[in-house]
Every structure is written in structure tokens, then in C-alpha cells.
Write a structure and sequence with these properties.
The structure is a single chain. By secondary structure, this protein is α/β, with parallel strands linked by helices. Among the domains are: 3-107, Helicase, Ruva Protein, domain 3 (Orthogonal Bundle); 317-401 and 563-649, P-loop containing nucleotide triphosphate hydrolases (Rossmann fold); 411-544, ABC transporter ATPase like fold (Up-down Bundle), CATH 1.20.1580.10. 35% of the residues lie in helices and 17% in strands. Strands 15-20-21-13-22-23 form a six-stranded mixed sheet, with helices on both faces. α19 runs antiparallel to α20. The radius of gyration is 31 Å and the shape is globular.
Length: 650
């Protein structure tokens, strides 16, 4: 039971202006009413009788008039209220939800489960009853797109002669739409798949296919990195969809780095030359050939084929497993068949294949939890039959999940730089004269944090009937500090003293110059710079970082350590990266390997694949057409496997 089961009919008035805490009063009144209704309040809910529970959940509404006395000062008040059962209270609250906060309050009383009537198909019994070629509509919707195309092809001949022309017309229409989805690598999806479970890339490709079907004209389509998560063979299909949109009289604006897409462009606008404060300028524009010849272009050498894309020397085949191996065996799971995989220790292994081929299942649902179980001495997942990983003590998954939900978490705090800076600024003459210590510079509890936003840099406005609005704090303007913090300044060789709020507003590249005399701080900032994060500001909130930025920031704390007992697993780390950033990323992989680590990467990027020591290619297709190892070995081994779709592009 909850105090929300008491619904006041009018406001409570207390003699002489005395005010009682609302929740305390409600809780007390609720217990009194519960006892009057015959429900014990001095025992745990689990010990209530069935009759008592029925009163709580389904009891009738009861209206009461009560005189209540404050036990502290004796002031009395009167209240009319109605007791409603728990079920009615939750349903009533749910019907009045207007924003996300309200939904969160109600959500703890709700649970989702499969509909017992339709079995999750969303179709009525009448819709599920008719059968065509031996299956019902709900069974057809549960098929993958690839399976369904094959099934639909056989529908016309299964019908009476007079119905075949109509069936053939419907089949051709279906194949036109399904073909585009399959070209975009979505053949593994079933028609009954909930849209909320699709990834961003999958949703974007679905929208593209729908746009082509609608045959729009005169529309500007803006696509933000549509190549994310796509195998090179799927990008061929993406280029086909874009060509269809343009041929229908539409304009397509792409924001992307993939040279396979850029090479098909009519016009390229390149921004740069660097990132953050070092960017913001148009450094090249023109056709593919013109940008390829432009000496100012960063992407030009990759478009013209002049760029060197072999950034490291892969291990030779005879010594591939000289440092040991990681071997694991699984039974079938999802669409992935039973597997026996051998991965070389101390090498860079890339797991690739078209979308839906089973890469994630094999690595993130099998290898990673199996190694975690072995290192922790716990039970392995039931589908993992065996794991042999001698010498491995740590498994570190570096994925694109956001870093925390705490708005006080910043790049500086996550990289363990902020604590060092607080100590340094606390030793300055300005801090000593103001009697401020390191703790006073804290976002959470320090005396120098902004009192208006409480050190968060933003304030939330509760707008009635609309979602809450987040605004930059009007007093500190997002710096998180009060005005006094700006008076504490640190001077270095540059001759330009800065305050901590000013330093936190700098990007990492600029902050390195200011912090050149701070040994620990500069070392940690240099690591971030080497990871390609020099454009991030120190005070940037980590929950707002992109997936690729989050991956690299997580990796920062691992750099420079001996890693001979560690396996690092990366899930598509090149998402959103320029080819030059991919070069830096491969340098990071090499540093880890030089320190003894085993690096396993799930990836589609051809430059990463070309630089791998060992490749595991899944497929050959997605869904039921995949789920097995097509080829494994060196780049040459994959290239010489006719069945490998990856090998075609290598």
C-alpha cells in the first residue's frame, strides 16, 4: 500500500497556520483506514490473509471525514478523503500521466508480458485462422524477410488459375519492397519485430526503403552516417537506394566518412582541418576527382587511392599462434550454429561478416560471458560447451554504451584529471588566502560549486503538460562553479593565469599547453589526445558523448599497463571515425598488443580488416543464411575464399 491510495477531497487546514508534513500525515491516515477496513498494519504484507489482500487490491472506495491532531504541537485539523484500492489508484495514475517523470512513478507498479490471447502475434483469432500454403498470417509474419520472399514466390502457383494474375501482381509488389530491405542488409529481420527493438542503423535503413517505395520527388533527404553498422556488401545496396531517390528527383545530403559511399557522390564538402576548435572550416569541395587532387583535403588521398592503409605489419601465418590460443566451443543459439573457434593470443583478431551473420552472438553472448565465468570461477552460459584460455585473468569489453547517467560525470572526472587539478588549485596563493581546500572545488559538495544549479551546470524546469525542459544554468553559464572560483588562478610558463572553471571549458589540446608543468595531468591528457579525443572539453558531460567517444574514453585508463593476462573486446569501434582516426585507433590496438594484450574486434571497416593478424568471417549471409564461420585466417586466406563476401571487397 502507498500513501497515494488516499485522495484528499479538499486541502487540509490547521489551526494557527500550523503545517503538517503531507507524506507523514497520509501514511498515518492510511494505516488508520486500513485497520478500520480490517487490514492489519503491524505485520508484513506477505503475511496478510487472502481477504486482507483483496481489500488492498480490490476493495470498494470508502469516504471518510477525520479530525487529525498533530502529536508534536497538539494542533488539530479536519480532512475529507476517499480511500481507493491499489488497482484503481495505479490505473487512475496511469490515465493521468503527462510526462516521463509521471510514467516512471507508475512504471514500478506495472509489468509487461506476452498477451495470453494472441500469444504476442497482435492478431485476433479470426485473422490467425486462414492458411495459405499451409501457414497462417501470424506464422508468415514470424518468418525472416529472406524466408518470406521464398515463401511468397510460391504463392501464385498454389492458387486456382483465375486468382494467379492478382497473386502475381501482389508478389511483384512485395518483392520490390523486400528486395530493397534485403539489399540494405535487413533480410534477417522478421515482419513482427517490434520497431522499438531496432537499432538506429536498422531504423534508418527501414525509413530509406519506405522513401523509395513512396516514390517522392522534390524532397531533401538528410542522412546522418547511414553506413554505421553496414558491411561493404550492404553499402552497395545503400548506394542503390540513394541512386533511386536521386533519380526520382530528390536531393540527398549525406554526413559520412565511408569512402565507399563518398566515392559515389556528385559533390563533396569537407570540413576541417581538425576537430573542435581546430575545425569549423570548409577545406575542400568539389567532385570526387577534384577533392582527391586537392592538397588541403584530408579525405582526398583515400578517395584517390593514394593513401597508405596498411598501418601495421600483421603476424605471419607460421607464428600466428606462437603466443598461445583461446579456444571455445558452443552449441547452437539463435541463428548461430554450433561453433569451434580458435583465436590467437597476443594478436589482433577481427570478427566480420554481413549484418545479422552472428558476430555479436558469437563474441558478446558467447566468448565474453564464457571468459568472464572462467576468470570468476562461475558457471558458464548453458550454450557454451568449453573454453580453454590459459593465462587469461581479465576480460574487458570496450563498447559504445554511454558512460554513466550522472550529469556530474565529466571527461575530466572520468579520466581522473579533476581530482589532481583540485589539489593543484588548492595549493595556489589565491586559494590559501581564501581558505579554500581541494574539497571546495568539488562539483558535488564543494563550497565553490554554483549554488543555483548545485554543480550540475544546468537546471530543470517543470513545464506543466509538457516534458521537463533542461536549460543551461543562468548564473554559472554551465561552468558548474560560482564567481569566487574564477578568482583562484593558476599561473604557468605561458604567462596567462587561468582559473579552474576556465580550464574546464578548454578542449584537451588547449588544456595540454596550460597543464604542461603538471606531470600527472599532462600524461593523462596526452593519452586522451592520442586516442583522438583532443577536441573534447574537460568539462563535457560524459553521458552526452557519442558511442565512439565513450569507447575511447573507457580505454584511456587501460593504456600503458602490462596486459599479458587480458583480452580486450571492441564492438565496432570505428563508428563515426574518419579514416585518419582509424589509423590512430589501429595505433592504440598495437600499443595494447605490444603490452601483451589479446585484442578482438567486431568490425566492418576494410582498413581495420586489412590490418588484422587473424580474421574470423561469419556468414555468408544474415539470419538463417549465416550463423557459421565461412573462413578464418589471414587477409589472404579470406580473399581466396570464394564464399566470403568480405573477401570480395578485400
Amino acid at each position: 500500500m502507498d500513501e497515494s491510495t488516499l485522495v484528499p477531497d479538499e486541502s487540509l487546514t490547521i489551526d494557527e497556520g500550523a503545517v503538517l508534513p503531507w507524506q507523514t500525515l497520509m501514511w498515518s491516515l492510511m494505516k488508520d483506514i486500513a485497520r478500520e477496513l480490517g487490514v492489519r498494519t503491524d505485520v508484513p504484507f506477505s503475511r496478510l490473509t487472502k481477504k486482507e489482500r483483496d481489500i488492498v487490491f480490490y476493495g470498494p472506495p470508502v469516504k471518510h471525514h477525520m479530525i487529525y491532531q498533530n502529536r508534536t504541537n497538539g494542533a488539530a485539523g479536519e480532512m475529507d478523503f476517499t480511500y481507493f484500492n491499489a488497482k484503481y489508484t495505479v490505473e487512475n495514475a496511469l490515465s493521468k500521466v503527462k510526462d516521463e517523470k509521471g510514467m516512471k512513478r507508475v512504471a514500478r507498479f506495472l509489468k509487461e508480458e506476452v498477451c495470453p490471447v494472441c500469444g504476442g502475434t497482435r492478431l485476433s483469432e479470426a485473422a490467425r485462422r486462414p492458411k495459405l500454403r499451409g501457414i497462417s498470417l501470424d506464422e508468415a509474419c514470424a518468418m525472416t524477410l529472406t524466408e518470406l520472399v521464398e515463401w511468397v514466390d510460391g504463392v501464385p502457383v498454389s492458387l486456382p488459375e483465375e486468382m494467379r494474375p492478382m497473386a502475381e501482381s501482389i508478389r511483384d509488389s512485395f518483392r520490390g519492397v523486400a528486395g530493397r530491405l534485403m539489399d540494405l542488409g535487413l533480410g534477417y529481420l522478421s515482419l513482427d519485430r517490434a520497431a522499438s527493438t531496432l537499432s538506429t542503423g536498422e531504423r534508418q535503413r527501414m525509413q530509406l526503403a519506405r522513401a523509395v517505395r513512396n516514390r517522392t520527388t522534390g524532397v531533401l533527404y538528410v542522412l546522418d552516417e547511414p553506413s554505421i553498422g553496414l558491411h561493404p556488401s550492404n553499402i552497395v545496396g545503400l548506394n542503390g537506394v540513394i541512386d533511386d531517390l536521386v533519380s526520382d528527383g530528390n536531393s540527398v545530403l549525406l554526413v559520412d566518412h565511408d569512402t565507399q559511399i563518398l566515392g559515389k557522390s556528385d559533390w563533396i564538402i569537407e570540413m576541417g582541418p581538425g576537430a573542435g576548435a581546430s575545425g569549423g572550416n570548409v577545406i575542400a569541395q568539389g567532385t570526387v576527382a577534384e577533392v582527391g587532387r586537392n592538397p588541403s583535403s584530408k579525405i582526398g588521398p583515400f578517395l584517390s587511392g593514394k593513401a597508405v592503409t596498411r598501418y601495421r605489419q600483421p603476424a605471419e601465418k607460421p607464428v600466428m599462434f606462437s603466443r598461445g590460443h583461446i579456444r571455445f566451443s558452443t552449441s547452437g543459439i539463435h541463428t548461430v550454429r554450433p561453433l569451434d573457434i580458435d583465436i590467437p593470443k597476443g594478436r589482433l583478431t577481427v570478427v566480420t561478416g554481413v549484418s545479422g551473420s552472428g558476430k555479436t552472438t558469437m563474441i558478446l553472448e558467447s566468448l565474453v560471458p564464457a571468459l568472464q565465468s572462467v576468470t570468476a570461477g562461475a558457471k558458464m552460459p548453458p550454450h557454451v560447451l568449453s573454453v580453454d584460455a590459459p593465462g587469461i585473468r581479465h576480460v574487458k569489453l570496450i563498447d559504445a554504451t554511454p558512460i554513466g547517467i550522472n550529469i556530474r560525470s565529466t571527461v575530466a572526472t572520468y579520466a581522473n584529471v579533476h581530482d589532481e587539478l583540485r589539489k593543484i588549485f588548492a595549493r595556489t596563493p589565491d586559494a590559501r588566502s581564501g581558505h579554500w581546500f581541494a574539497a571546495d572545488f568539488s562539483y558535488n559538495t564543494g563550497k565553490l560549486r554554483c549554488p543555483t544549479c548545485d554543480g550540475t551546470g544546468s537546471i530543470s524546469l517543470d513545464v506543466q503538460f509538457l516534458p521537463d525542459v533542461e536549460l543551461t544554468c543562468p548564473d554559472c553559464r554551465g561552468s558548474r562553479y560560482c564567481r569566487e572560483a574564477y578568482s583562484v588562478r593558476y599561473g604557468n610558463v605561458t604567462g596567462h593565469p587561468v582559473s579552474l572553471p576556465e580550464l574546464m571549458a578548454m578542449d584537451i589540446d588547449s588544456a595540454l599547453e596550460v597543464c604542461s608543468e603538471m606531470k600527472t595531468v599532462s600524461q593523462r591528457l596526452m593519452t586522451l589526445q592520442k586516442l583522438g579525443l583532443g577536441y573534447l572539453t574537460l568539462g563535457e558531460a560524459t553521458p552526452g558523448l557519442s558511442g565512439g567517444e565513450a569507447q575511447r574514453l573507457k580505454l584511456a585508463s587501460e593504456m600503458g599497463k602490462s596486459q599479458s593476462d587480458s583480452v580486450f573486446v571492441f564492438d565496432e569501434p570505428t563508428i563515426g571515425l574518419h579514416p585518419l582516426d582509424v589509423e590512430s585507433l589501429l595505433g592504440v590496438f598495437q600499443t595494447l598488443i605490444d603490452n601483451g594484450a589479446t585484442v578482438v574486434v567486431i568490425e566492418h571497416d576494410l582498413d581495420v580488416i586489412r590490418n588484422a593478424d587473424y580474421i574470423v568471417d561469419m556468414g555468408p549471409g544474415g539470419g538463417l543464411e549465416g550463423g557459421r564461420v565461412v573462413a578464418c585466417g589471414t587477409v589472404e586466406d579470406i580473399r581466396n575464399t570464394p564464399e566470403s563476401r568480405t573477401g570480395t571487397f578485400l
